[in-house]
Amino acid sequence: MANIFNLPASLPDEELFETLLKSENVLIERIISTGQTTPPGKWYDQEKDEWVILLQGEAELSYADGSTIKLSAGDYIFIPARQKHRVDYTSSEPPCIWLAVHDNNRT
Questions:
Q1: Does 2 map to a domain?
Q2: In-domain check, residue 11
Protein backbone atom coordinates (compact mmCIF):
# COMPACT_ATOMS: atom_id res chain seq x y z
CA MET A 1 0.00 0.00 0.00
CA ALA A 2 1.25 3.48 -0.84
CA ASN A 3 0.98 6.55 1.39
CA ILE A 4 0.66 10.06 -0.09
CA PHE A 5 2.80 11.52 2.73
CA ASN A 6 5.76 9.13 2.32
CA LEU A 7 8.59 11.10 0.74
CA PRO A 8 11.65 9.76 -1.06
CA ALA A 9 14.78 9.56 1.13
CA SER A 10 16.40 12.18 -1.10
CA LEU A 11 14.42 14.84 -2.94
CA PRO A 12 15.71 16.23 -6.25
CA ASP A 13 16.40 19.94 -6.77
CA GLU A 14 13.44 20.14 -9.16
CA GLU A 15 9.79 19.57 -8.34
CA LEU A 16 8.88 15.90 -8.32
CA PHE A 17 5.85 14.84 -10.39
CA GLU A 18 4.48 11.34 -9.81
CA THR A 19 1.58 9.92 -11.79
CA LEU A 20 -0.83 8.12 -9.46
CA LEU A 21 -3.56 7.39 -12.01
CA LYS A 22 -3.83 8.02 -15.72
CA SER A 23 -6.80 7.16 -17.89
CA GLU A 24 -8.42 8.46 -21.03
CA ASN A 25 -10.43 10.93 -18.93
CA VAL A 26 -8.24 11.94 -16.01
CA LEU A 27 -4.67 12.34 -14.78
CA ILE A 28 -4.02 12.35 -11.03
CA GLU A 29 -0.55 13.20 -9.84
CA ARG A 30 1.35 13.91 -6.65
CA ILE A 31 3.66 16.91 -6.85
CA ILE A 32 6.35 17.56 -4.26
CA SER A 33 7.76 21.09 -4.11
CA THR A 34 10.64 22.15 -1.91
CA GLY A 35 10.94 25.88 -2.50
CA GLN A 36 10.60 25.83 -6.30
CA THR A 37 8.77 28.68 -8.04
CA THR A 38 7.87 29.59 -11.59
CA PRO A 39 10.79 31.34 -13.30
CA PRO A 40 10.44 35.16 -13.55
CA GLY A 41 8.38 36.25 -16.54
CA LYS A 42 6.94 32.77 -17.18
CA TRP A 43 3.26 31.83 -16.90
CA TYR A 44 1.58 28.44 -16.91
CA ASP A 45 -1.09 28.44 -19.63
CA GLN A 46 -2.44 24.90 -19.50
CA GLU A 47 -4.69 23.37 -22.11
CA LYS A 48 -6.61 21.34 -19.53
CA ASP A 49 -8.60 22.12 -16.39
CA GLU A 50 -6.80 21.38 -13.13
CA TRP A 51 -8.12 20.86 -9.60
CA VAL A 52 -5.37 20.90 -6.99
CA ILE A 53 -5.25 20.49 -3.21
CA LEU A 54 -2.27 21.33 -1.04
CA LEU A 55 -1.98 18.46 1.43
CA GLN A 56 1.10 19.72 3.28
CA GLY A 57 3.09 22.94 3.39
CA GLU A 58 2.32 26.47 2.22
CA ALA A 59 2.27 28.03 -1.23
CA GLU A 60 1.31 31.18 -3.08
CA LEU A 61 -0.04 31.44 -6.63
CA SER A 62 -0.60 34.52 -8.72
CA TYR A 63 -2.68 35.13 -11.81
CA ALA A 64 -2.19 37.30 -14.89
CA ASP A 65 -4.94 39.64 -13.65
CA GLY A 66 -2.74 40.55 -10.66
CA SER A 67 -4.62 38.55 -8.04
CA THR A 68 -2.83 36.20 -5.65
CA ILE A 69 -3.88 33.33 -3.43
CA LYS A 70 -2.10 31.89 -0.40
CA LEU A 71 -2.60 28.20 0.23
CA SER A 72 -2.15 26.22 3.45
CA ALA A 73 -2.56 22.51 4.05
CA GLY A 74 -6.09 21.47 3.08
CA ASP A 75 -6.76 24.38 0.71
CA TYR A 76 -7.81 23.52 -2.83
CA ILE A 77 -8.47 25.45 -6.02
CA PHE A 78 -9.79 24.91 -9.51
CA ILE A 79 -7.70 26.37 -12.33
CA PRO A 80 -9.63 26.48 -15.61
CA ALA A 81 -7.84 25.71 -18.84
CA ARG A 82 -5.98 28.73 -20.31
CA GLN A 83 -6.02 30.70 -17.02
CA LYS A 84 -2.49 32.05 -16.82
CA HIS A 85 -0.96 31.50 -13.41
CA ARG A 86 2.38 31.07 -11.70
CA VAL A 87 3.77 29.68 -8.45
CA ASP A 88 5.42 32.46 -6.43
CA TYR A 89 6.24 30.51 -3.26
CA THR A 90 6.40 26.93 -1.97
CA SER A 91 7.63 25.97 1.49
CA SER A 92 10.60 23.68 1.82
CA GLU A 93 10.05 22.81 5.49
CA PRO A 94 7.73 21.11 5.38
CA PRO A 95 7.84 20.27 1.68
CA CYS A 96 4.66 20.99 -0.25
CA ILE A 97 2.71 17.90 -1.18
CA TRP A 98 0.09 18.61 -3.85
CA LEU A 99 -2.55 16.33 -5.30
CA ALA A 100 -3.49 17.48 -8.81
CA VAL A 101 -6.38 16.23 -10.90
CA HIS A 102 -6.31 17.08 -14.62
CA ASP A 103 -9.33 16.74 -16.90
CA ASN A 104 -8.08 14.85 -19.98
CA ASN A 105 -11.38 15.31 -21.83
CA ARG A 106 -10.63 18.93 -22.61
CA THR A 107 -8.44 19.76 -25.58
A1: no
A2: no
